Amino acid sequence: MASKYAKRYRIPEGFPEVMRDLTREVLRDFPRDKDVVDEERWILEYAAKHFAQKAAGGGVLRPGVSGAGTASGGGDSGSAGFPTGQELAEIIHRLFADADKDKSGTLDSNEFR
């Protein structure tokens, strides 16, 4: 029950979506096949990597890469086995170049098939 004395906080625009995305990724990537000694630490380290990757312009963390999905991953997001922003840009550029069959610099509907 809400108290009339409770301080009201303004929720920043986008905050619910950011927290929902983090929650979804934590629940998706939390190791189910082994015991995590310190679950809170795992969550905090995962969240730190998640937000570092997002701040660097990267996407979502993915497990199964060196350092991902473990509480002892260590290092920053680039050294944790996840692509850096520069590496992601190179991957995207390469994928675009591969899809651009007529080398026009744009992708038309025929190249999306």
What does this molecule look like?
- With 113 residues, this protein is mainly α.
- The chain has two domains: 13-82, no CATH class; 84-113, no CATH class.
- It has three helices and no strands.
- The chain has helices at residues 15-29, 39-55, 85-99.
- It starts with 14 loop residues before the first helix and ends in a 14-residue tail after the last helix.
- The model is unreliable at 63-80 (pLDDT under 50).
The SSE order reads: HHH
Mean pLDDT, rounded to whole units? Answer: 74
Which strand-content bin applies to the residues? under 5%
Largest sheet: none
Q: Structural class, from secondary structure content?
A: mainly alpha
Q: Outline, from the CA principal axes? A: extended
Query: What is the subunit arrangement here?
Result: single chain
| Record field, number of beta strands | 0
Cα-atom radius of gyration: 19 Å
Poorly predicted tracts of residues: 63-80
Distance between the termini: 54 Å
What percent of the residues sit in helical stretches (DSSP H or I)?
Answer: 40-55%
The tally of domains stands at 2
DSSP helical segment count: 3
Task: Describe the secondary-structure layout.
Elements: H1 15-29, H2 39-55, H3 85-99
Question: Could you give a short description of this structure?
Answer:
The chain is 42% helix and 0% strand.
Keywords:
single chain; 2 domains; mainly alpha; extended; 113 residues
